[in-house]
Design brief:
Elements (H helix, E strand, L loop, with lengths): L2 H10 L21 H34 L6 H7 L6
Length: 86
């Protein structure tokens, strides 16, 4: 299954939020406000910078901790991987 097919499949699965509507009128004048595209592009750029910064150092350590198994709390698992949530 391609990444696009997986995304389409996951969008068809109920999430519990199907009837949730957000009023974004305090941020955007109308549904086709150009600021929406601008903000989405900025969020995408921020996500890419975050991934670039942490992918090489965090992900391998996180998977190493997860592969050890156990039922530790997520914050403890992350602490073992060198991530302080405090």
């Amino acid at each position: 299954m391609t990444e696009l097919e997986e995304a389409e499949f996951s969008m068809k699965q109920p999430t519990g939020a199907e009837r949730v509507f957000w009023d974004l009128s305090i941020f955007y004048a109308q549904p086709d406000d150009p600021a929406i595209a601008r903000d989405l592009a900025e969020l995408q750029a921020q996500a890419e910078r975050f991934a670039e910064r942490y992918r090489a150092s965090f992900v391998p350590r996180y998977f190493e901790v997860l592969s050890a198994g156990g039922s530790d709390a997520p914050e403890n698992i992350l602490a073992k991987a060198g991530v302080d949530l405090n």
